Amino acid sequence: MRWQGQTVGETDAAALPGLEDRSSVLRSVTTPEFAGMTFHEVLSKSALNHVPGASRMPFAWTINPYRGCSHACVYCVSPDTLILCADGRQRPLRDLEIGDQIIGTEREGAYRRYVPTEIRAKWSNRKAAYRVTLADGTEIIASGDHRFLTERGWKHVTDAESGQRPHLTTNNRLLGFGIGPAGADIDQTSTDYRRGYLAGMIRGDGMIFHGTYPSPERVRKVHMFRLALVDPEALDRTREFLEAEDVPTRTRPFAAQTETRSAANAIHTAARAGVERIEQLILSPEEPNESWFAGFLGGIFDAEGSCSRGVLRISNGDPELIRLIEQGMRAFDVPHIVEGARANGVRDVRVTGGLPSRQRFFAIASPAITRKLDIIGTAVKTASDLRVVSIEPLGEEQDLLDITTGTGDFVANGVISHNCFARGTHEYLDLDGGSDFDSQIVVKVNVVEVLERELRKGSWQHETVALGTNTDPYQRAEGRYKLMPGIIETLAASGTPISILTKGTLIRRDIPLLVKAAQRVPIDVQMSIAMYDDELQKAIEPGTPSTQARLDTVKALSDAGFPVTVFLMPILPHMTDSVDAIAHALERIKMAGARTVIYGALHLRPGVKPWFFQWLGEHRPDLVSSYRGLYPGASAEAPKPYRQWLAKRVKPLIRLHGLDARHEDDYPRRGFRPGQGHVDSIWRQDGAPTTGRAPGRPSPAVTFRTTGSATSTPAQPMLF
Asked: What is the pLDDT of residues 378-421, one digit of tens each?
């Protein structure tokens, strides 16, 4: 944990926002009444968080007295970014999913080493993009908030508006191996690549035989092709490639496993036409192109190559094959040397330049055998020239993606890349962005004193301050630290309107204080209650207060004179959208004293969909096919006909129960008017407006997660 550097006045620009002074970390606390949770008490330099003018958030100021269980995320790198996977291959980020095994890093002894890790979450959004170019030709497109590991620690792509965070400059060098310039775009499904692979594999390790066997009756001519391998991946690829060339083969056992030898299978054919076709396929073209050379290098490496202790070599005694290997290496600028012949005439073509050259070879040649690509345990040593050459704004927003991993990092275009910034704020204390978000809570114990100082500034315009936009201000930690009373009193005393969004029942403790504050400033209160079936609520919202407890809180607030808004969102197709379910929910909401209900169908934004379908498969497998029909492909919203059907079903029930209700799609965008007594618009928790909504308040939304939480704020992304 980064508790070092406790000297008063020492600053660390990489710290959590407002925590640049590293002496701010006071202590970590665990108590029996909060089993499984650790509170990290810190001194913050700021309380009010300003939302940038370019943001789509409907409010300008927020306060987050706690860090943990965060739903916000800044989305980081281009979907085309190549991510190093645990099998040693690099795949575009867009093709990866939650649960996939990739490579991260961990410090072991004197070195940081490459280790396997898992993708725990994935998000997408549109952000302003920058192109980072390195001296070796590697390019990365990322948001300004993204961080990369340099020889001087983690640094963001660009500086913050406040100028208070470390960021990349041309004096920095990234860590990793890079991928070099874009170079040739090798289509590994092309005919040229396929035939090059067959040439390298079969000429390197195959057997072709033609023979004549005379007998008294007749002369028998024999034609045979056979390829025997221990590794099924290369054998399967060769068989598939031959089938694509209309050469069918059969598979049979070749050698049984022994104590010193693995079992081997072989593909073969004795058809004359097939054997002759293979002989034609493996001939070298008069002028091989890059795709053929890439396939050839992949095939000859699978047949005769090895990668031991980081040294990649290909061995063969055929001068023609050695010449082709060299020619292929030169075609792609892969540094190499040809070693002298051994006694048996075999020579080695050895790739030089360490891990960067080795990974470049693998990316170009794409060999089939996974075990030869292993990088796990290799030390992070940067041999490539990964100096930052330029950082260019692209001048437009782009679709960007980010992931959370078990190690807190991943390898993007060959350089070590941090998880998303919002989750990364937790990781400043070496906490991960997954389960630690549930259990490791950062508490700004001096937030009230700092807030008082900020509100006394002459520049303060008394704009509405939103509480609950990032983490729930009434999560369980508030029961211990009691920060909200001081925040409410301070805001009210300064004449600042207040908006509170919560799922927590702890707000009841502060009702007398809120009543007093409401005499001075407008106060807006909203409660999210989506589930009215106790078992369903426990399954989807573990760790949050029960439905009845939240309804009792609504009643207590209503009795105190607050016109409470309840978010009946999301309504889940086939689970909570029946007439009985909706009527039951509205009856309970009405009895609790709420005045306004805002309702809407389930929204599955990209980072949430895999989590929800995983939950659905475990708890309601009977509905998986129906949900795939409602939310096909990348679709995030329920189809418009379903939303219209839902509105026709809900509106008569609303009138029946005498409630003022709004559908999320019904109203155009308009600003929030302090003191109007209810929320007249909906925003997604991630800040993105839904179609046709008015900016008024960020909407809470039901969540689910794969593990339970001790906090009242959900840990996984919103299902809204």
From this structure: 999 887 899 999 999 999 888 888 888 888 899 999 999 986 43
CA dist 136 and 353 (Å) reads 13
Please say if the pLDDT value at position 35 is more than 60. no
For residue 338 the two structure tokens come to 């040809």
Q: Are 401 and 123 in contact (CB under 8 A)?
A: yes
For 656-674, b where at least 16 C-beta lie within 10 A, e where not — what string? ebebebbbbbbbeeeebeb
More confident residue, 140 or 685: 140
The CA–CA distances, whole Å, from 143 to 129, 395, 420 equal 5, 12, 10
Strands 82-84 and 101-108 turn out to be unpaired
- Please choose, from the candidates 474, 483, 544, 509, the residue with its C-alpha nearest in 3D space to the C-alpha of residue 41: 483
CA distances (Å), 155 to each of 79, 131, 343, 349, 568, in order?
21, 15, 53, 39, 42
Helix, strand, coil distribution of the chain in percent, nearest 5:
30, 25, 45
Q: Are strands 523-528 and 565-571 parallel, antiparallel or unpaired?
A: parallel
The CA dihedral of 171, 174, 177, 181, to the nearest 10 degrees, is -60
Query: For tokens 């939302």, what's the residue?
Result: 51
SS3 276: helix
Q: What is the side-by-side order of every strand in the sheet holding 207-214?
A: 207-214, 219-229, 264-269, 250-255
pLDDT at 364 over 70: yes
Range picked from 164-168, 474-478, 494-498 for highest mean pLDDT: 494-498
**What string of DSSP letters covers 167-229?**
B--TT-BB-B----S------TTSHHHHHHHHHHHHHHH-EEEEEEEE-SS-EEEEEEEEEEE
The strands making up 147-150's β-sheet, listed across from edge to edge, are: 90-92, 82-84, 409-412, 415-418, 147-150, 153-156
Q: What is the DSSP string of 509-570?
A: GGHHHHHHHHTTS-EEEEEE----SHHHHHHHSTTSPPHHHHHHHHHHHHHTT---EEEEEE
In angstroms, the CA 37 to CA 69 distance is 12
Output 21 or 317, whichever has higher pLDDT.
317
Angle between helices 547-559 and 579-592 (to 10 degrees): 40
Amino acid found at 685: Q
Residue 58: pLDDT over 80 = no
Statement: residue 289 has pLDDT above 60: yes
Specify the 3-state DSSP secondary structure of 354: helix
Coil, strand or helix at 478: helix
Mean pLDDT of the chain: 80
* pLDDT tier at 567, thresholds 50, 70, 90: confident
C-alpha 687/C-alpha 56 separation (Å) is 6
Structure tokens belonging to residue 387: 């100096």
* Amino acid 70: pLDDT: 34
**Looking at 205-214, 347-356, 635-644, 690-699, which range is the least confident one?**
690-699
Rounded mean pLDDT, 433-439: 48
- Of 488, 683, 709, 549, the residue nearest 58 (C-alpha): 683
Read off the pLDDT of residues 626-652 as tens digits, 9 standing for 90 and up. Answer: 998 999 877 778 898 999 999 999 999
**173 CB-contact burial (10 Å; exposed 0-12 / middle 13-18 / buried 19+):** middle
Distance of CA 717 to the CA centre of its chain: 11
Question: Tokens in use for 111?
Answer: 């070195």
